[in-house]
């Protein structure tokens, strides 16, 4: 009986020592970590690979660990990850959180992007939906690639299917025909090489002649411009003198017409009617003289002195 009681006390003491040692280890660990601050990160993506106790690093330096992972109560599309980091770590406005995955399946949280001089992330500078300041997330790293892997595989399968359709037996035959036609066209083009060279030579000669013609035309144009510039002024001066003389002659003619208007009016009103009457008298006199002349020719001079004979009547 006594032996069994001793064993019982030994077991109790051993358990007490183990519990004390565990408590001391936890206390030393908490003491080594120092004061910590907690933040929430709301990820709208898979957080596979993260677990309670996963490492949190700032610019590659370990600064804390994940303390809690659960679905966001207000919106189940998000996963709320709570992290605890050392108090001296500068979690400033502009800091973002990224899930850094690996091929081993273990993921960590990477903090980066703090700006010097920016205020610290607190409930005063950001939202605190679960009582802790929120660090905004950012897609990136291997985790984002793995999250998009199903979509990439689907697109790769679609691309493979379309490539299979493109490289079907029928399409391969058509592609082979196109290649044969291309080879034939290349051979024909090579055969017509001498003709092409001759044509190009003629084209070069034509271009040279055209260039010479353009040079000659440019010279003629320059000569014409020179003649116009040198003799044009003299011609213009003579033309201006001629126009001035014509203008003076027109003015003189206008003045002459103004002076001749009264004489013309008198001629029209008095002289012309008198002349017309005189012409009528002359016509009558001429007619009488013509009649006298005809009588002298037909009847003689006696017809002018005696009476005209009586006509003979037959009995």
Notes on the protein architecture:
Keywords: Membrane, Transmembrane, Transmembrane helix. Residues 39-102 form the Mce/MlaD domain. It holds the Pfam family MlaD. InterPro entries: Mce/MlaD. This is MlaD family protein. By secondary structure, this protein is α+β, with helices and mostly antiparallel strands. Among the domains are: 34-143; 167-232. Helix content is 61%, strand content 13%. It contains 6 helices and 6 strands; from the N terminus they run αββββββααααα. The protein has a 6-stranded mixed beta sheet. A hairpin with a 7-residue loop joins strand 3 and strand 4 (79-86). The relative contact order is 0.05. The mean pLDDT is 76.
Strand-pairing-aware structural class: alpha+beta
Low confidence ranges: none
Radius of gyration: 65 Å
How many beta-strand segments? 6
The chain-level mean pLDDT equals 76
Query: What is the ordering of alpha helices and beta strands?
Result: HEEEEEEHHHHH
Characterize the biggest β-sheet: 6 strands, mixed
Give the helix proportion (percent range): 55-70%
Q: Determine the number of helices (DSSP H or I, runs of at least 4 residues).
A: 6
What portion of residues belong to β-strands?
Answer: 5-15%
N→C terminal distance: 230 Å
Strand order of the largest sheet: 1-4-3-2-6-5
How would you describe the shape? elongated
């Amino acid at each position: 009986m006594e032996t069994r009681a001793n064993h019982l006390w030994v077991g109790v003491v051993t358990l007490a020592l183990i519990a004390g040692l565990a408590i001391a280890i936890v206390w030393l660990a908490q003491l080594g970590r120092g004061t910590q601050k907690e933040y929430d990160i709301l990820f709208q993506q898979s957080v596979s690979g993260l677990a309670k106790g996963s490492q949190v690093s700032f610019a590659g330096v370990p600064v804390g660990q994940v303390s809690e992972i659960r679905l966001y109560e207000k919106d189940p599309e998000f996963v709320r990850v709570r992290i605890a980091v050392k108090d001296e770590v500068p979690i400033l406005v502009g800091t973002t959180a990224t899930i850094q995955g690996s091929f081993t399946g273990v993921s960590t949280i990477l903090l980066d992007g703090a700006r010097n001089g920016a205020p610290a992330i607190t409930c005063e500078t950001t939202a605190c939906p679960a009582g802790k300041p929120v660090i905004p997330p950012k897609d990136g790293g291997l985790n984002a690639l793995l999250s998009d892997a199903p979509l990439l595989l689907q697109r790769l399968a679609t691309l493979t299917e379309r490539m299979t359709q493109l490289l079907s037996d029928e399409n391969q035959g058509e592609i082979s025909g196109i290649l044969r036609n291309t080879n034939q066209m290349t051979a024909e083009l090579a055969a017509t090489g001498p003709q092409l060279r001759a044509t190009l030579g003629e084209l070069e000669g034509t271009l040279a002649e055209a260039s010479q013609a353009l040079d000659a035309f440019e010279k003629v144009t320059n000569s014409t411009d020179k003649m116009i510039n040198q003799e044009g002024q003299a011609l213009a001066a003579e033309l201006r003198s001629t126009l001035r003389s014509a203008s003076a002659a027109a003015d003189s003619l206008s003045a002459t017409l103004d002076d001749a208007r009264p004489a013309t009016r008198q001629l029209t009103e008095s002289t012309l009617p008198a002349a017309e009457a005189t012409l009528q008298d002359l016509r009558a006199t001429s007619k009488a003289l013509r009649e006298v002349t005809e009588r002298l020719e037909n009847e003689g001079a006696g017809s002018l002195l005696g009476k005209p004979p009586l006509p003979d009547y037959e009995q």
